[in-house]
Amino acid sequence: MARPRIKDVARHAGVSEKTVSNVINDYAHVSDRTRKVVREAIEQLGYRVNLAGRHLRRGRTGIIALVVPELDIPYFAELARHVIREAEQRSLTVLIHQSGADRAHELAALAGFGSAFVDGIILSPLALTADDLRDRAGAPPTVLLGELLEEGADHVAIDNERAAREATAHLIGLGRRAVLAVGGRDDSGLGTAEARTRGYRAALSEAGIAYDPAALLPVDSFRMPDGAEAVAVALRGGARPDALLCLNDQLALGALRALHEHGVRVPEDVAVIGFDDVEGGRFSVPTLSTVAPDKAAVAKVAVHLLQRRIEEATGANGVSEGPESGVLSPQDRIVDHRLVLRESTEGHERR
Q: Mean pLDDT score of the chain, rounded to an integer?
């Protein structure tokens, strides 16, 4: 049986094809009765909107790419779910690409994968430089996630420095003074880890605690085995922390395991806090205190900004927000975060 077309719906409902199109596109000036008749005809015939044809008529594919470093890092998997949900509400399809934090892969994504099959890109870069982002002639519209690398690009993030400062200040407020930063890095760079390290150091300074570079526990990657190994090495080396700020929840979950294996009680002996509020932290023993970024808001804002930029590129909206007519000014959006306090820090203050 042939797939029903818009003219079949019009004939079944006794209206014009234009009226059916107005109902499909939710045009306001259609009577409730007509709208009801057309929708019933659509349901009875099993008509489906040809989104591909609609997008192509507008000079688009209806496909956007989400590029993340690693899909098996729970934060990125959870973020992808929110991006897909938000895109579906805008009749967009999401292509997920894993860059592996490799510069060549991130550059390929930034260039649109060498073809025109995506309308735009949401990119979480780890290996790119500011120069890479400035040289984007002919590249598809792009929204960056994470720390800002280039001021001329649309960008969505939480205030990582402030969030780490608040998390560290909470640990200090519990009476903890020997706070180690698992995954901490030299804070002179522009990445997320560097921003969180700056927040950690700021909280120590505000509390009058001297910063010791040995309190930064480096990791090769931000996974549970890396967190466990970093903490185990520190304990075997004689470190006696009373709190750990872990720069993501995966590191924190690994740290919990290492502390357990060394007979260290959490939070009685060492309080632990992470970042990202991933599902695993709600089921660990003890449950994990964490900084919770509003992942749904990150996705919503990123997809919204990208859609605006795509419409600008295809001449679909005629918006004028920048100094030149029809040019949207770059947007730098900071979304909310909150401190979620659970068993790994709560109830054991030291005075």
A: 88
